[in-house]
Amino acid sequence: MLELIPSFVTILFGVGALGLALRGYVRREQGLIIGAFALHLFAALAQVFITRDYYGYGDMLTFFRHGGVVADGMREDFWAFAPDAVALLFQQQTAHFGWLDESSPATATMYGIGSWLNYLTQGSLYAACLLVAIGSFFGKLAMFRAFRPLFPERLHRRLIVGMMWMPSTVFWSSGILKESIAMIGLGAATYGLVRLTDPSKSRLNAIIVLGVGAVIMGLVKTYILGPFAIAAGAWYYWQRGLRLSGGKALTLRPFHFVVAMALAMGVVIGIGQIFPRYALDNLVDEASRLQEVGQRVTGDSSYALSDSAPTSAAGQLAMAPLALLTALARPFIFEANNIMALVSALEMSFVLGLLLLALYRRGGRESWQVIMRSPPLIFALIFVLLFALGVGLTTTNMGTLSRYRIPMMPFYMMLLFALLPARAPRRPVRLRRQRLNARPESPRQAPHRS
């Protein structure tokens, strides 16, 4: 009963918010959005059952239980302990919980989030996960709402499926995990970025939403900001270039290129100043360290890209093709050794099939032309490749690979569904018409002369 009432109230809150959000969508879109909402609620319940009742351990339980200590203090004296919960959120020193301050910055933020969730839900893990799942769902819905006007109507339902229905994205973003919180921030930042590129929208509101999303991502998954900033700079450059060229083939615009790259590099350097772990000078060392840690940990789902962890930038770049393949397509079916891995393998087989089908139907050259004419697809391509490279180089376990790559999956699916034609070309009919058009006309019979 203690779990049931807060969970029921949380679901009612989510349903009410969903009812307001559905305005402006056509009926077919509404059905898919409601289905995605239900999937997120189910995934939240599954997260609790699998993590707490089946395995009995996990990051989610650690965040919630440690945060529960702060929440208990807030229930006794809110004004005395609430500042500690806020301090944990922003990775600052607390007055009463020094043992929590010793955690890594992102983990401290998760303890802060866990404390507020524990306090608001009266200690109900089910209600807390449902609340996070609802927030993650609306983050993805914000992505779709932002991109929806930029694509033809025939792609809208595909985008909903790609952004909000993929199993790994739904499951791993529906618990008290860093990836779930990052998806909320990524959705807000993407919505703000798209609105910022639209001259008809309020720039101030767009900047605020973009800033809030960036702060959320920076607190829990800092490395998302680098690919996001570079991809956003590319969007700005492509959009300005296409606008000045009248939609024709993009030509180099030095001023806009310099502005875009300066903005992107400024954000990347700023990230390194705030979070030294992700500074440009430390990226190679950090990747090498994570690879070495992964090589020491053995298990059925562990893998390694090489026998030893390269310590130079050239050595890391040499593994880039394999890292991209790993992040964009693995695990393969034959690599699955449990139910979770099998589901992930089936999902990535579907994704790989979509990629091959799109390339088969359009061809490589036409696919590239479609991307080059669309700033949103340029953004998606650059973000996916950079993020996949980072995840592929630093992840050494198939289970965590499925979880770590979910921030790129909505953009990956958007890219694939945009490249996939609405229907397969009718090659036999087209070829027959070409033959008929190429056949020379029969000469007219000359008039008979007597």
Protein model, in words:
The chain crosses the membrane at residues 6-25, 32-50, 125-143, 180-197, 204-237, 257-280, 339-360, 376-394, 406-424. Keywords: Membrane, Transmembrane, Transmembrane helix. This protein has helices spanning 4-21, 27-55, 59-76, 78-89, 98-101, 105-120, 125-147, 156-164, 167-172, 178-196, 203-220, 225-244, 254-274, 283-296, 313-318, 320-329, 339-362, 364-372, 375-394, 398-404, 409-419, 427-438. With 450 residues, the chain is an all-alpha fold. It has 2 domains: 1-220, no CATH class; 266-420, no CATH class. The longest helix has 29 residues, at 27-55. The chain is globular. The termini are far apart. Residues 441-450 have low confidence and may be disordered.
Give a summary of the structure in a few sentences.
Keywords: Membrane, Transmembrane, Transmembrane helix. With 450 residues, the chain is an all-alpha fold. Helix content is 72%, strand content 0%.
